[in-house]
């Protein structure tokens, strides 16, 4: 039997080598050559849940925010400060298209990624999207634990978060599946994701016949 995944120096989680169970195999067969992209606001748990979901399915995990930082050799707050949000969103779109286009993976996207049309199109072209939806109180409780959210560097972070919810939640609702991200068992959230995929987008894909992974990259764009 193979061991648990560990992150490498690029922030990627190595693929599990344990034999997958029948449920995981069925989900991967229905996915075909697509990834699973987690979308949602900061604090929704995309990274921590994404790692657990990847481990459950035996897939590689990629965090696009971390990939952007590696490519730019700067933290995200530094990118915002030096170059502005428009520059960051352009880099983000390129990274999302690149990491989704390599092979089936679990991909955690940044909070604003799915809001931008070009990045949303990149997600749709090569992934099944899952919105991790969390209540305002849950989000604020989580984001207060870290000081790396430049969009909340305001005199009224709670007001900013409420405005983001009002603006972004209707767009996140366009994702292929929605799962509530709540405090408590992270493994239960993973189970909820699997059930949502099986009941919705993957069920439709199975009926139509998913395309198996060919081993060739898709939709690759240079991260320049």
From TrEMBL:
GO terms for biological process: amino acid biosynthetic process; aromatic amino acid family biosynthetic process; chorismate biosynthetic process. Substrate binds at residues 65, 89, 111, 168. Pathway: Metabolic intermediate biosynthesis; chorismate biosynthesis; chorismate from D-erythrose 4-phosphate and phosphoenolpyruvate: step 5/7. It holds the Pfam family SKI. Binds 1 Mg(2+) ion per subunit. It is found in: Cytoplasm. One of its GO terms (cellular component) is cytosol. ATP binds at residues 43-48, 149. Its EC number is 2.7.1.71. GO terms for molecular function: ATP binding; magnesium ion binding; shikimate kinase activity. Its cofactor is Mg(2+). Mg(2+) binds at residue 47. Monomer. Belongs to the shikimate kinase family. Catalyzes the specific phosphorylation of the 3-hydroxyl group of shikimic acid using ATP as a cosubstrate. This is Shikimate kinase. It comes from Lichenifustis flavocetrariae. The gene is aroK.
């Amino acid at each position: 039997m193979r061991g648990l995944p560990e992150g490498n120096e690029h922030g990627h989680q190595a693929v599990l080598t344990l034999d997958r169970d029948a449920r995981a195999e069925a989900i991967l067969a229905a996915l075909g050559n697509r990834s699973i992209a987690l979308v949602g606001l900061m604090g929704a748990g995309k990274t921590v849940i994404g790692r657990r979901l990847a481990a459950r399915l035996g897939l590689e995990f990629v965090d696009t925010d971390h990939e952007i930082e590696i490519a730019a050799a700067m933290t995200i707050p530094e990118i915002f400060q030096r170059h502005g949000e428009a520059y960051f969103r352009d880099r983000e779109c390129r990274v999302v298209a690149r990491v989704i286009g390599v092979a089936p993976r679990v991909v955690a996207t940044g909070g604003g990624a799915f809001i931008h049309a070009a990045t949303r199109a990149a997600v749709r072209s090569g992934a099944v999207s899952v919105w991790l939806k969390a209540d305002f109180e849950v989000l604020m409780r989580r984001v207060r634990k870290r000081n790396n959210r430049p969009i909340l560097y305001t005199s009224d972070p709670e007001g900013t978060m409420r405005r983001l919810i009002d603006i972004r939640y209707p767009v996140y609702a366009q994702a292929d599946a929605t799962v509530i991200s709540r405090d408590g068992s992270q493994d239960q959230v993973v189970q909820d994701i699997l059930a949502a995929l099986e009941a919705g987008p993957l069920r439709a894909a199975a009926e139509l016949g998913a395309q198996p992974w060919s081993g060739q990259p898709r939709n690759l764009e240079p991260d320049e």
